[in-house]
Automatic annotation (TrEMBL):
It is found in: Cell membrane. This is MFS transporter. The chain crosses the membrane at residues 12-35, 47-68, 80-99, 105-127, 147-168, 174-194, 232-252, 264-286, 293-312, 318-341, 353-374, 380-398. Residues 9-406 form the Major facilitator superfamily (MFS) profile domain. The keyword Membrane applies. Keywords: Membrane, Transmembrane, Transmembrane helix, Transport. GO terms for molecular function: transmembrane transporter activity. It is a multi-pass membrane protein. The lineage of its organism: Bacteria, Bacillati, Bacillota, Bacilli, Bacillales. One of its GO terms (cellular component) is plasma membrane.
Amino acid sequence: MYDQRRNHFLFFMDTVLFVNAMTFLSVNAIITYFLANLQADTFEIGLVNALVSIGSFISQPLFAKLVMNLSHKAKMFAKILFIQRISFLLVVAAVPLFAESRPQLMVLVFLIGWAIFNLFVGSYNIFYMSLFAKLVTPNARGRLRGFSSGAGSVFALGSAALCGVLLTKVPFPYNYTVIFAAGVALLLLDVLMFRLMKEHEADEVAKVNFNYFQYFKAVPLMFREFPQYKRTVAGFAFIVASHSALAYYTLYAVRTFEAGSTTIALFTAITGLANIAGSVIFGIMADRIGHRHVLMAAAIAGGLGSLLIVSFHGLWSVYAAFALTNICIIGYNLSGSVFILEQIPRSRLPMAISINSMFSLCTSSVVLIGSSWVADYLSFQAVFLFTGLCGIAGFFIVRGRQPALSSQQSSHFD
């Protein structure tokens, strides 16, 4: 019982630390504004967002294979996270050296460092959900994820306020150096949460050794064996596509309304407020009426957010869209993987999570890169119309009737 409470607390703190770290390293606010200050073009800014998906996509099969061959996962996960976060400090160190004197070189250094950083992101969901399914009881999953995210977002309001102060009071580029360093410091502290987890029970391990070709060959077999899972993956791809709008809200505000550092700081604050509301409400919803309803509500929020900008011209609509799309993301992050856990036996979970991530990441990469060209050659409104319709489509796909869990699958949750 003591170890169970300890692990629940560590999962709670992991989310709190991660949410605050990613406030300082917000790709949709802080990093986008940083690159805009470096005179990066639309494609480069879109590429930064796409690299999150591309890096994860490339590394998915490698980390899936690694997880499936480990009986204990927490310590290995901590090592992977430590390497990822220490290496990104080199990028942070380059900011005061090149951002002002050689901005184009700084853009290139950042893109390379960000690509390496995101290769390790491919380990996140596979390791995390394997540990979460193993160490957290089913009746506590929704509330734990919701309340931890909500608590993290409360503290993130302070982090967002600090970002605003640093952006306005500290001269460029030292303001971004401090902001990025603070984010990495929190991520390094987060590594300790997994290092300290107690993982007594050994998972059953059937040694697997597959290459990229065999990995992709296994995908249709999973879809045939679990047809509802196939529908879920399709729905999630549309929901994740709707998230792509978030990458362009800041750039749209800067170019259309000449938004400055105060507005950018407000975007990070809106993210925190949306995460607080979404996390608490969705966490309670998940345990009371199920994760499918959370995902449906999230998809509607994502669709309406983008369509709001298309329908109304004004900075207020960008603020509202930013909030709604963040609510969509928090709902997807809270319930997406757990929803898959409800459809797939725990022994097959690493592969199922990996396949879903692969499809979602591929979709996200294509939409993000394609949207950068659409924004330049057509308009931002065309981008937001497409992502809005993707959110609505995701709602209808996820809404489809869900079969009851078999007793065999349910036994894997205990």
